[in-house]
């Protein structure tokens, strides 16, 4: 991590942990779209991915796993990011699990673009809030509109008081990203950084309270 910016490997691992939508692409093969859908069961010690999919292969083939991350709340431009993991797909084991030996990964998301090598993927950990992020964002959007509007005070001066509707669009250990949507269709994002890294859901409530307290000063 560069400061509070997660590395490319961390961001890919977070997409994996969050069970984002994934599809397999094998050059030269055009399977049924349903067969391309994949579920990531885990990451091995060498960065290899264990996959469950309807697709069947009888020999090792090159493949690309595309992961798409969609915001769990209703908001314009819901696709938050994509990752492409390239490698070699081996036939399923007796339990029907495919193995993708990774050659590398590229990610393009709200943080920007980045690349990760297999050893970086193996060593990286997902964001501590990844598994709970969707539920937390949905709760904030449904039940805490007033608190979200209070964050307006932390926006740059030129953006304050615009009347744009705030929608929580992303959350991680270092902060909350809010997307502002105006009646005229203008959309912009704001990043509200916590005063310290949140190590899990148990610390999130206190971090959010401190952030709101700062906004109301």
Automatic annotation (TrEMBL):
InterPro entries: DUF2470, Haem_oxidase_HugZ-like_sf. Residues 133-209 form the DUF2470 domain. Pfam families: DUF2470 (PF10615). This is DUF2470 domain-containing protein. The lineage of its organism: Bacteria, Bacillati, Actinomycetota, Actinomycetes, Kitasatosporales.
């Amino acid at each position: 991590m560069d400061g509070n910016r997660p590395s490319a490997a961390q961001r890919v691992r977070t997409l994996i942990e969050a069970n984002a939508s994934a599809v397999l692409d094998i050059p030269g093969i055009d399977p049924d779209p349903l067969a391309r859908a994949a579920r990531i069961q885990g990451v091995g010690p060498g960065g290899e991915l264990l996959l469950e999919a309807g697709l069947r292969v009888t020999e090792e083939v090159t493949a690309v796993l595309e992961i798409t991350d969609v915001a769990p709340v209703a908001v314009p431009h819901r696709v938050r990011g994509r990752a492409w993991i390239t490698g070699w797909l081996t036939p399923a084991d007796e339990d029907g699990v495919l193995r993708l030996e990774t050659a590398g990964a590229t990610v393009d998301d709200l943080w920007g673009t980045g690349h990760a090598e297999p050893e970086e993927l193996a060593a990286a950990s997902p964001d501590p809030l990844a598994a709970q992020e969707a539920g937390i964002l949905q709760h904030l959007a449904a039940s805490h509109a007033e608190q979200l509007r209070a964050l307006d005070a932390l926006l740059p001066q030129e953006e304050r008081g615009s009347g744009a509707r705030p929608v929580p669009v992303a959350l991680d250990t270092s902060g909350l990203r809010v997307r502002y949507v105006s009646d005229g269709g203008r959309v912009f994002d704001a990043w509200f950084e916590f005063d310290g890294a949140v190590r899990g859901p148990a610390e999130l409530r206190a971090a959010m309270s401190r952030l709101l307290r700062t906004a109301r000063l």
